[in-house]
């Protein structure tokens, strides 16, 4: 008879910065979370927005099992599915020959899968191979960015809907999306100011996949989005995560923007991480 090990709620949660983020120490995610532990983790996730679980060594299947404790796994965009496990996306700077390519993706501010009808609730990113220094991931607090706007601007932006498009975000990078990708991820309209379904707080919802304001001239909407992003990613709203071996991050896509920082020699050192995502709900 097999024995299922459960992780108990004897662990510490310690804030990582005055802005956001907390580290979870003393929890082995390879074990099944008991209900009390699962709830404590989720409550901390909603409070701190980014959780870092230290010292993890998870297989892809174990990462999937942990992710599914908090909801439904989200499929990846069509071109990211070709791997031994299509529910786990390998994020890396390695080229086809398996050596560092010098290229680092996801350097623009974004929230994962905002082009879906039900954008991602959470992303789980597990460090497999890290450079000796750098390769940070940065997070911007969209609650704080919204709260810091003038009352008149908050009132003006409430009710604005934004077109989120995989196709148009690829155009920003000089890349043409394939017909398969366009059919897989057609444009979606979401509120610019959303109410977080767990906390009830209002926050901005935008990023690189946010193309323009629905029903308004594209240039006007893009200029407003660029100005809002510059406001929302000021240093006072940002937490920078400096990875350690074995780190597993879980962050809330509903109230954060994030980006990778290529602050390492990406042509010399490998940076490999495994990513899973949880499906969220339609923004409101």
Fold topology:
Layout (H helix, E strand, L loop, with lengths): L5 E2 L4 E4 L6 E4 L6 E2 L1 H14 L1 E4 L6 H9 L20 E4 L27 E10 L7 E5 H6 L3 H7 L3 E4 L1 H7 L6 H6 L3 E4 L1 E3 L6 E3 L5 E4 L4 H15 L5 E4 L6 E5 L3 E5 L11 E8 L5
Parallel strand pairs: 1-4, 3-5
Antiparallel strand pairs: 2-3, 5-15, 6-17, 7-15, 7-17, 8-14, 8-16, 9-10, 9-13, 11-12
Structure description:
With 284 residues, the protein is α+β, with helices and mostly antiparallel strands. Helices cover 23% and strands 26% of the residues. It has 7 helices and 17 strands. The protein is globular.
- CATH class (first level) name: Alpha Beta
Encode the helix/strand succession as letters: EEEEHEHEEEHHEHHEEEEHEEEE
CATH-defined superfamily: Clavaminate synthase-like
User: How many H/I helices?
Assistant: 7
In order across it, which strands form the biggest sheet? 2-3-5-15-7-17-6
Count of individual beta strands:
17
Average pLDDT figure: 92
State the shape.
Answer: globular
> What name does CATH use for the topology?
Double-stranded beta-helix
Low-confidence stretches: 1-5
Based on secondary structure, the structural category is: alpha+beta
Helix content: 10-25%
Short synopsis of the structure:
The protein is of the alpha+beta class and 284 residues long.
